[in-house]
Design brief:
With 228 residues, this protein is an alpha/beta fold. The protein is built from eight helices and eleven strands. The strands form two sheets. Strands 3-8-7-4-5-6 form a six-stranded mixed beta sheet. A five-stranded parallel beta sheet has the order 2-1-9-10-11.
Length: 228
């Protein structure tokens, strides 16, 4: 039986996708997320989120955020990365103006379409530099607000896996920090997107990328890879 290691705890329905394909699973959280208190701006017109964790941290402090405007959600225009991030924002009454699969795509969109606007970028302590550097380059006003911290949770595994599932560059770094996890009998590193894959390629050439930036797509790519 093929076996996989997920560097993120999976939901029961996600686990089922692997089990039903006859694949055994071990899962753990390779990174820990901790929300941090932050001082909310008096007004937020345009907000940028590149992860669900940033949205959850933002909502955790919603008592100090500007009040919702009648009939207009929170009265804030949201720009985000990832379908799941968009869904979480919309479930909480926000208007999502633009969603892209990758931060680089969102950065390009903002430069092309919102050059005269100003933004608040809600993010973690470890984040891609693509959006801030692009906004600075193009003299677009923004304020970065740290709303959560990511810490690595390295763990040593004595057994071999056919594939390892990765959902962030930090997850890759955490798993690979235990050098004994990197054996000659290399498993396939299945990555949620190109940024995560770039990090994975520092450790192995045996890297594949999911078709979409969702956990389910990572699982589907893994099943396909292990069944062929």
């Amino acid at each position: 039986m093929k076996s996989v290691l997920s560097t993120k705890k999976l939901s029961p329905s996600q686990r089922e996708l692997l089990v039903n394909a006859g694949i055994s699973l071990v899962d753990y959280n390779a990174i820990n997320i901790e929300f941090v208190p932050f001082k909310a701006p008096n007004t937020v017109e345009n907000a940028i989120f590149t992860s669900q964790n940033a949205v959850k941290a933002y909502l955790n402090e919603k008592d100090q955020l500007p009040s919702p405007l009648e009939g207009e959600g929170w009265g804030v225009r949201m720009f985000c990365v990832g379908e799941k991030t968009k869904s979480l924002l919309e479930e909480n009454g926000f208007k999502v103006v633009k969603m892209t699969e990758y931060a680089s795509e969102l950065a390009s969109y903002l430069v092309e379409n919102h050059k005269n606007d100003s933004f608040h970028f809600f993010c973690g302590n470890i984040r891609s530099d693509e959006i801030p550097s692009k906004l600075k380059e193009n003299h677009i006003a923004f304020e970065e607000i740290e709303v959560y911290k990511t810490t690595l949770n390295p763990k040593k595994f004595e057994r071999q896996f056919d594939a390892i599932l990765f959902f962030s560059p930090s997850g890759v770094r955490s798993y690979c920090e235990e050098r004994s996890n990197l054996t000659n009998d290399e498993p396939t590193f299945v990555c949620i997107g190109t940024t995560t894959a770039s990090e994975a390629k520092k450790y192995t050439e045996n890297v594949v990328i999911a078709n979409a930036t969702t956990v389910e797509s990572v699982i589907a790519k893994t099943v396909k890879k292990l069944k062929t």
